[in-house]
Design brief:
Helix content: 25-40%
Largest sheet: 4 strands, antiparallel
Strand content: 25-35%
Radius of gyration: 23 Å
Length: 153
């Protein structure tokens, strides 16, 4: 139990109960937003892949009808902990391996097919193939036309 200096125990318990109720109200509000009728959920598929696999991934998701994606050149490391390169007979440790990061926002019903297409296209079977993350997208807006939701994709 948390005791504040000079505060009676029952006041501390009331404050903790109030905080718990506020947190529960916030969670319930977010759940109802997602469950409200007519609400269309979108997902962001974020993939970190080997750069030479970028074109194969683009072709795979384009074949599924995905109209656009954002690509970033990034560096990082995972379980491979970097790599060793040989340049002019000397070995150099590269701590951060160059990767390509792809961001795709798709309709909720497309996400499984897109994830599978990205995985199959990026797969080499060797260490460092990458990772795929799927995140909820609450809102999208096309700046030029003002379209929102899936219409803005």
């Amino acid at each position: 139990m948390i005791l504040a200096l000079g505060m009676p125990d029952f006041i501390v318990r009331c404050n903790i109960t109030l905080i718990r109720c506020c947190i529960a109200a916030i969670v319930i509000t977010h759940v109802f937003q997602y469950l409200s009728p007519g609400r269309v959920l979108m997902k962001m598929v974020m993939a970190i892949i080997k750069p030479f696999k970028l074109e194969a991934v683009r072709d795979a998701v384009t074949a599924l009808g995905v109209d656009g994606m954002t690509v970033s050149e990034v560096k990082g490391y995972g379980r491979q902990k970097g790599q060793t390169e040989i340049y002019r007979g000397s070995e150099y440790d590269i701590e951060y391996v160059p990767k390509a990061k792809i961001d795709l926002v798709v309709a909720d019903d497309q996400v499984d097919a897109v994830v599978e297409a990205v995985r199959n296209a990026a797969l080499t079977g060797k260490i460092g193939d990458g990772k795929i993350f799927v995140l909820d997208v609450a809102q999208s807006l096309r700046i030029r036309t003002g379209e929102t939701g899936q219409d803005a994709l």
